[in-house]
Amino acid sequence: MIDDPAFRSARPIDRLLAVMARLRDAETGCPWDLAQDFSTIAPYTIEEAYEVADAIERQDMPGLRDELGDLLLQVVFHARMAEEIGKFDFDAVAESIVVKMLRRHPHVFGSNKAAGIDAVNDNWERIKANERAEKHDSIEPPSALDGVAHALPALARAAKLQRRASRVGFDWGAPEPILDKIAEEIAEMSAELPAGDKARITDELGDVLFAVVNLARHLDIDPEVALRGTNAKFERRFKFIERALRDTGRSPEDSTLEEMDALWRQAKTIEAKTTDS
Predict the structure, then answer these.
(1) Which superfamily, per CATH, for 5-104?
(2) How far apart are CA 221 and CA 228, in angstroms?
(3) pLDDT > 70 fraction of the chain, expressed in percent and rounded
(4) Calpha distance 36→77 (Å, rounded)
(5) Angle at 225 between CA 219 and CA 229, to 5 degrees
(6) How is the chain split into domains, by residue range?
(7) Computed from CA positions of residues 92, 43, 221, 190, in that sequence, does the dihedral angle turn out positive or negative?
(8) Residue 18 and residue 161: Cα distance in Å, rounded?
(9) pTM of this structure
(10) Helix H or strand E segment including 87
(11) In angstroms, rounded to a whole number, what is the distance separating the alpha carbons of residues 273 and 269?
């Protein structure tokens, strides 16, 4: 296959499809690839999407190219498995998204005109709502929340549920009242702490997080991005603590919380000076 001139001269996407077909060949394919199904590959698909986001955040263009390739491989893998059971193939996947983009951009490919991004977004959501209504086959009436994937990360799903509810008028008018709501939810969680009921505390903590996501949405801040930034900040400062202790021949296990907190504050001070300079 690799030495085949036709393979070497083919378009990269056709070569990729041929590679996947060979990997899934029942007689000559890879045992690991053959053992996979949609459910076992799904976690890798999600992971690769996050790898793409990470490369973008780091502004790593060579890395982004590679990660996009990894994500494309996931699409090809799913399409190949679907083709094997006679459901659809890669071309059908590509055609499906082409049709969807044409339908959802009447201001580009049709006669409709959209004045600005807000109008485009409103039109996009209206078309998506019509699509969901056409697909709805349940005995339950359609909901504004239909189609919000359960597999989304919880913070992202919370924001999307809130956006859907907002479009039908169920929303705060400004971010300030949400701060009061967050304080209210924290107070309710605090009231549950003495009893130690894990289920009730978990429920109240979920309410706190949901309210914080609501605040982020009103401030036009992606909560996932905000939390990733804080994760990076925590990692950076904690490693500063480890390095500082290592320079004195110690480790966090050998130190007190007060000592580590002092180093944490030192790391914050250094970062602030670096930012100001």
Answers:
(1) MazG-like (1.10.287.1080)
(2) 12
(3) 96
(4) 10
(5) 110
(6) 5-104, 225-276
(7) positive
(8) 40
(9) 0.67
(10) none
(11) 6
